[in-house]
Amino acid sequence: MNKRIVVIGGGAAGFFGAIRCAELNPEAEVIILEAGKEALNKVRISGGGRCNVTHACFVPKDLSKNYPRGERELIGPFHRFSTGDTIEWFEKRGVPTKIEEDGRMFPTTDKSQTIIDCLQDSARKAGVKVLLQQRVHQLEPPAESRPHWLVHTKTHSYPADAVLVATGSSPAVWKMLAELGHHIVDPVPSLFTFNIKDPRIEGLPGVSVPKAEVKVQSSKLSATGPLLITHWGMSGPAILRLSAWGARELAAMQYNFTIRVNWVNRHVEQVREELESLRREEPKKQPFANPQFGLPARLWRSLLSHAGIHEQARWAELGKKAMNKLTEELAQGSYTVNGKSTFKEEFVTAGGVSLKEVDFKTFQSKLFSGLFFAGEVLDIDAITGGFNFQAAWTGGWIAGSSLIRDPLEP
Fold first, then answer.
1. SS (H, E, C) 120-137
2. How many Cβ atoms sit within 10 Å of the Cβ of residue 232?
């Protein structure tokens, strides 16, 4: 009798695992059960509709450093299937990719539909069945009287030789897995922006700096990168990285804390020296008319104003107090964060199935033979830039390679 594999979840990891399994085992019946009315919805809306497929980081150990949760566990899997393998997989199926300046990789079409079409076409050619509106509410492991898993939806029960759970961040699925005996690490948001109301950035939405350093006061948390001022506060890679690495710590603070922003990414003393040099060498020039450190003019003028420097002032007229205040504003300005904002299409959760309970050579449960995981159902998450998708491709590919295998095989 041919083996049946059931994949729960029709997202990136689920499709990738199903395709890999079906291509390796043409005689097997591979079924994807998707709860929604359509599959691959997160792929469709990701990257602003362009789908940030992966990131141009090709060394497994370096790649793993972009995962606040899962860094150690993913090193081995990335040696088996990594960024280069993802690029090759899609290119062999007619989807070339491109690298942008920040390392993010997209299909050359700049359309997520290209990725969706590729996955759906590959699944169809491999014989994968995709069943929509099949929300799984119970999993029954094999018993003495029944050698198969049973996957229950509202309308059907599917016997399966093996099950791949790739549902993403799903509280209902986590509850179901907890009832089986798996430990679920409590989920908290990751990748969010900071809500800040402060006169220094009021009226400056859209203004950004290429490299700022942001530190959380009374904490070891810090991040460096582009910073964007928004209508509600601060965003950009520096803020998103900080939110990812500090997901649990910031949740414990109930998202009320203070950050220090170094807008120019220079040491305080270096900033002080450069300002003193301007005062000596360009005494007659007006600071307001001559932005420094590569800062956008609007931000530069706002920081000058809040340092108590008036528009007509010249460098020679600035006293020690004004120079010290400007140095502080540029290199260690203090901002109060009151809350966070997340975008549903980019929402990432820290939490999920405990990594201690997963064999990362196969992505199989250590508690149950024949139960596999891939994607964000696990307690794995990454910073922004295509890394979460890469973890989905890697986990799906390895799980898909392992779903039908003799337990005695090495």
1. HHHHHHHCCEEECCCCEE
2. 15
pLDDT, tens digit (0-9, with 9 covering 90-100), for 269-301: 999 999 999 999 999 999 999 999 999 999 999
CA 59 to chain centroid, in Å, comes to 18
Give the integer Cα–Cα distance in Å for 389 and 387: 5
Considering only CA atoms, which of 311, 410, 306, 307 is closest in space to residue 359? 410
Please give the backbone phi and psi of residue 238, each rounded to the nearest 5 degrees, phi first: -60, -45
Q: Is residue 172 within 8 Å of 139, Cβ to Cβ?
A: no
Percent of the residues in the chain that have a pLDDT greater than 90, as a whole number: 95
Domain boundaries, the chain: 4-189+345-402, 192-341
Q: 41-72 b/e with 16+ CB inside 10 Å = b? A: ebbbebbeebbbbbbbbeebeebbebbbbbee
Domain range 4-189+345-402, CATH class:
alpha beta
d(CA 396, CA 287): 56
Compute the Cα dihedral for 211, 216, 218, 221 and give only its sign: negative
Q: Of 228, 250, 248, which Cα lies nearest the Cα of 237?
A: 228
- pTM attached to this predicted model: 0.92
Would you state the structure tokens that stand for residue 136, as one six-digit string? Answer: 């799984």
Q: What does the DSSP 8-state code read for residue 253?
A: T
CA distances from 354 to 73, 135, 136, 222, 400 (A): 11, 23, 21, 26, 20
